[in-house]
Specification:
Blueprint (H helix, E strand, L loop, with lengths): L2 H36 L2 H40 L9 H23 L8 H38 L12 H11 L12 H34 L12 H11 L10 H16 L33 H24 L8 H16 L5 H10 L8 H11 L1 H19 L1 H8 L1 H19 L4 H20 L1 H7 L8 H16 L4 H29 L4 H22 L19 E3 L7 H4 L3 E3 L2 E3 L1 H18 L2 H11 L1 H6 L4 H27 L1 E3 L7 H11 L9 H25 L5 H21 L6
Helix pairs in contact: 1-12, 1-13, 2-3, 2-10, 2-11, 4-9, 5-6, 11-12, 13-15, 14-15, 15-27, 16-22, 16-25, 16-26, 16-27, 17-23, 17-25, 18-19, 18-25, 19-25, 23-25, 26-27, 26-28, 27-28
C-alpha cells in the first residue's frame, strides 16, 4: 500500500471514529436530559394524569367489551329461535354473531371511548388509596412467597426419595419427618404451611410411585414380548391364572409383580387376539435411552400449595375494599358500569389492579402500561414529547453506551487485540452488549450474573483440567472425559451406599481422583507414542471411552434400586438425582446476595482454591520442569528433564482434575448424567480456556478464570436474550456450538501446527 493510500485510510478511520463518538455523545446527552425530566415535579403530575386516564379507559374499555359480548350472545339466542337454525351452518352463525358484535362495539365505542370530558378529580384520591393498599399487599405477599419458596426449595432438595412417604397416613409423623430434614418448617411462623407440605409430600410420592410403576411395567412388558415367540400359542389359556402362570414361567421377572398384573394381562390378551385375527405383530425392539442434554436449572417452586397468612389476607381485603370504593366512584362518572355482569367486572378489576399497582415500578414501565390503555391522549404538544423522552431515556443511554463501546473498539482495535487477542476482545465486547440487551428486554442482569457465577463454579474446574495438558505439551486434552467418567463412577458409588452431605462430596472427589490416576497414566503412554498428533488421539480416545462406558454402565454390579433399572436388577439409569445427597452443597455454603446478585460463595471458593493449588504447583520444581518440557522439549532434554515423564505427570494431573471437576459440576447441576452426557465437556472446557487468552502451547491460571467467566457469561445471557428475541428460542445451543468450535478453530490456526519436538 502506498503512503498516500495509508494516509487516506488513516484519515477515513479518524473521520469515522469522530462521527461515532459524536453520535454516542448525542445519545448519552439526550438520555441525561430524559432522566432530568423524570425528576421534575411537573413530570410526576403528568404521569399521575396518565394513571387516572388509564383507569378510566380500562373501565370504559371493559364496558365496551361487555356490551359487545352481550350483543354476540343476544344474536346467538335470536338465531337459535329461528326454525331453520340447524340448517344455517356453523360458519354462517359465527359470521352473523360477529357482525352483531362488531356493530355493538362500534356503537359502544362512540359512546364511551372518548373520556376526555369526564371529571376525574374525584377519582384521584380513590386511586391513591387503592395504589397504597396494593403496594402494602404486594410487599407482604412477596415477602411471604419468598419465605415459602425458600422452604419449598429446601424440602424438595432435601428429600432423596419421595416414595419413602408412600403409605404414611399420619400427618403429624409425615410433617415431623419433613421438619427433621428442614428444621425451618417447625418454626411458629411457618405453622400455616403444615397442611401444604404434607399434601406436597403425598402428591410427589404418588407421582414418583406412579412413574416407577410405569417404568417397571414398560420393562416387564418388553421382557414378556421378547420371551413369547408366538402369541397364538397362548390362545388356549383363557383363564387368567393359567395365563399368568405361563407368563411367569416364560419371564421369571414377573414373579411377585402383582401391582402390574391386571394391566399386563390386558395387553397380553390384546396381543393374543391380534395374532389370532392374523394381524402382523412386530417383535419388541430394544429401547435405548440417550443421555439428556440438559442445562442447569433451579428448582421450580410450585405455588399451588401456597397459603396466605392472616396478615396478608387482611391486607388483600383492604385492597379489595379500596377497589370497591374506586368502582363506586367510577359508576358515578360512567353510570352504565353499574349494569355489568360479575365476569366482566372481575376482568376489569384484574386489569385495573395491574395499572394501579404499577406505581411502584420504574418510570419507563409505568409509562408503557399507561400508554397501552390510551392514557397518552391526555398529553399534548411539547409535554407529550418530554414525557416520551423521559420514558425512553434508558433506551437512549443503552444505545449511547453501545455506540461508544463500538467507537472505542473501532479506534483502538490494534491495541486491544495485541493486548487481549482477537477472541477475548470479541467475546468481551459481545458479553457487554448482551448485558445491555438484557436491559432492553427487561431481563434481570443481576439475576443472570448470579447464574453466571454458578456456571463459573460448575465449569471452572473442568476448564482448569486443560491447564496441565497444555503446560506439559499434549495441547488441548480432549481426553479429559476419562477423568469425567472416573468422577461419575465415584458419584455413583456414593449413591450406591446412600452417602449424603459433605462426606459424600469429599468421598466422590477423592475416589474419582484415585480412579483417574491409572486411567490418566495409561492414556499418557498412548500420547507419548503419538507425539504431534495429540489433539486427534485425545479426541478419539475421549469419544471412544465414553462409548465403551455406555456398555460398562449397563454391566457394572450395582444393586441399589434407586440407581439401577428395575428390570433384572442391573444396569445404571441415565440420570441420577443428587437431591437429598450432596446437590448444591457447595453452592449454598456461605452464599449471600449483594445488589441482587446471588453469590455461590462455597462453589467459587472451591474453584479458586483449586486454581490456587494449580498456581502453586506451576511454581514448584516439578511444575517448572513440566512447563519446560511442554514449551521446549529439546532444551528440556538437554537440561536433564525426562520429557515423557513430565508429559505423563501433566496428563495424569489433568485427568484427576477433570474427575474432581465433574463431581463439582454434578453437585451444582443437581444431577449426575451418565452414558453419552460427558462427550462434549472437553470442547466446552477447551473453548473457555482459549477465550481466556490461552493457546494450544501456553496457558496460565488467569486464562482459566477469565475465560470461564466470559464463555459462561455469553452463553447464560445469550440463552435468555435469544429466547426473548426469537419466537421459540432455541438459539442458545446453536450459539454454544458456534462459539466453542469457532474459538478452537481460531486457536489451531494461530498455533500453525508447529511441532514441539
Amino acid at each position: 500500500m502506498t503512503q498516500a493510500a495509508k494516509k487516506k485510510t488513516s484519515m477515513t478511520k479518524r473521520v469515522v471514529s469522530i462521527v461515532l463518538f459524536v453520535l454516542s455523545a448525542v445519545l448519552i446527552v439526550t438520555s441525561i436530559a430524559g432522566f432530568v425530566i423524570r425528576g421534575m415535579d411537573s413530570t410526576a403530575a403528568r404521569l399521575n394524569e396518565m394513571r387516572t386516564s388509564a383507569v378510566v379507559h380500562v373501565a370504559s374499555g371493559g364496558l365496551v367489551d361487555g356490551i359487545a359480548a352481550e350483543a354476540n350472545a343476544a344474536k346467538l339466542k335470536e338465531l337459535r329461535a329461528l326454525p331453520d337454525f340447524r340448517s344455517m351452518g356453523m360458519d354462517a352463525v359465527k359470521a352473523l354473531c360477529a357482525e352483531a358484535e362488531a356493530a355493538a362495539r362500534a356503537e359502544a365505542e362512540a359512546l364511551y371511548s372518548d373520556v376526555s370530558g369526564v371529571d376525574t378529580d374525584a377519582l384521584v384520591g380513590k386511586i391513591d388509596a387503592l395504589e397504597s393498599a396494593l403496594t402494602e399487599y404486594n410487599e407482604l405477599s412477596a415477602a411471604q412467597k419468598a419465605t415459602y419458596a425458600e422452604l419449598y426449595t429446601s424440602v424438595y432438595e432435601s428429600v432423596a426419595d419421595w416414595t419413602d412417604f408412600v403409605g404414611e397416613n399420619d400427618d403429624d409423623a409425615l410433617f415431623a419427618a419433613l421438619t427433621g430434614l428442614v428444621p425451618g418448617l417447625g418454626e411458629a411462623e411457618n405453622a400455616i404451611y403444615k397442611d401444604s407440605f404434607v399434601k406436597l409430600a403425598r402428591d410427589l410420592a404418588a407421582v414418583e410411585l406412579e412413574k416407577e410403576n410405569a417404568e417397571l411395567y414398560e420393562q416387564l412388558f418388553s421382557a414378556v414380548t421378547a420371551a413369547v415367540a408366538d402369541w397364538s400359542s397362548l390362545s388356549e389359556l383363557t383363564d387368567d391364572e393359567a395365563l399368568w402362570a405361563k407368563l411367569v414361567e416364560l419371564t421369571p421377572e414377573l414373579n411377585g409383580q402383582d401391582a402390574v398384573r391386571e394391566q399386563l394381562l390386558t395387553d397380553v390378551k390384546a396381543q393374543i387376539a391380534a395374532a389370532a385375527s392374523g394381524e402382523v405383530t412386530t417383535e419388541a425392539e430394544a429401547e435405548t435411552e440417550e443421555a439428556a442434554t440438559e442445562t442447569a436449572t433451579e428448582t421450580v417452586v410450585d405455588y399451588g400449595y401456597f397459603v396466605e397468612s392472616e396478615a396478608v389476607a387482611a391486607s388483600g381485603a383492604v385492597a379489595d375494599a379500596a377497589f370497591d370504593d374506586l368502582w363506586s366512584e367510577l359508576v358515578k362518572v360512567i353510570p352504565d358500569l353499574d349494569g355489568l355482569d360479575k365476569k366482566t367486572k372481575n376482568s376489569i378489576q384484574e386489569t385495573m389492579m395491574t395499572v394501579v399497582s404499577s406505581g411502584s415500578l420504574d418510570f419507563s414501565t409505568r409509562y408503557d402500561i399507561y400508554a397501552a390503555q390510551k392514557a397518552d391522549s391526555v398529553l399534548s404538544g411539547g409535554t407529550a414529547f418530554q414525557i416520551k423522552l423521559a420514558a425512553n431515556a434508558g433506551m437512549y443511554l443503552i444505545a449511547g453506551i453501545a455506540l461508544l463501546l463500538f467507537a472505542l473498539v473501532y479506534t483502538f482495535w490494534k491495541l486491544l487485540t495485541r493486548k487481549l487477542g482477537v477472541p477475548r476482545t470479541i467475546i468481551t465486547l459481545f458479553f457487554i452488549y448482551l448485558c445491555l440487551a438484557a436491559e432492553i428486554y427487561n431481563i434481570s442482569v443481576s439475576l443472570m450474573l448470579g447464574n453466571v457465577l454458578v456456571r463459573v463454579g460448575m465449569y471452572g474446574i473442568l476448564a482448569l483440567a486443560m491447564l496441565p495438558g497444555i503446560q506439559c505439551g499434549i495441547g488441548l486434552n480432549m481426553g479429559m472425559t476419562l477423568g469425567c467418567i472416573a468422577g461419575l463412577l465415584s458419584v455413583v458409588i456414593s449413591l450406591q451406599y446412600d452417602m449424603t452431605g459433605a462426606s459424600a462430596l469429599i468421598f466422590s472427589c477423592v475416589l474419582g481422583a484415585l480412579i483417574a490416576i491409572p486411567l490418566g497414566w495409561a492414556y499418557s503412554l498412548l500420547l507419548n507414542r503419538t507425539k504431534g498428533d495429540e489433539m486427534t488421539i485425545s479426541t478419539y480416545v475421549g469419544f471412544s471411552f465414553v462409548s465403551l462406558m455406555c456398555i460398562g454402565w449397563m454391566l457394572l454390579p450395582f444393586n441399589n434400586t434407586k440407581i439401577i433399572w428395575l428390570l433384572r436388577g442391573r444396569g445404571l439409569r441415565v440420570t441420577h438425582s443428587l437431591l437429598g445427597s450432596f446437590a448444591h452443597l457447595l453452592d449454598n455454603f456461605l452464599a449471600f446476595k449483594i445488589f441482587g446478585v446471588e453469590v455461590p460463595t462455597g462453589l467459587l471458593l472451591f474453584f479458586l482454591l483449586c486454581c490456587f493449588l494449580m498456581w502453586l504447583f506451576s511454581r514448584s520444581k516439578a511444575g517448572i520442569a513440566m512447563s519446560a518440557a511442554g514449551s521446549n522439549p529439546r532444551f528440556a532434554e538437554a537440561s536433564g528433564i525426562n520429557v515423557d515423564r513430565m508429559r505423563t505427570l501433566g496428563t495424569v494431573l489433568s485427568t484427576m482434575i477433570a474427575a474432581i471437576g465433574i463431581v463439582v459440576y454434578s453437585q451444582a447441576f443437581g444431577y449426575a448424567q451418565l452414558y453419552t452426557a460427558p462427550r462434549q465437556l472437553g470442547f466446552i472446557a477447551a473453548s473457555a480456556i482459549l477465550i481466556g487468552g490461552a493457546t494450544v502451547s501456553k496457558a496460565k491460571v488467569s486464562h482459566v478464570i477469565i475465560g470461564v467467566f466470559l464463555f459462561e457469561g455469553v452463553l447464560a445471557l445469550g440463552q435468555q436474550i435469544a429466547n426473548a428475541a426469537v419466537a421459540g428460542g432455541g438459539l442458545s445451543e446453536v450459539m454454544r456450538i458456534m462459539i466453542s468450535n469457532g474459538i478452537i478453530l481460531y486457536a489451531l490456526t494461530q498455533s500453525g501446527g508447529a511441532s514441539r519436538d
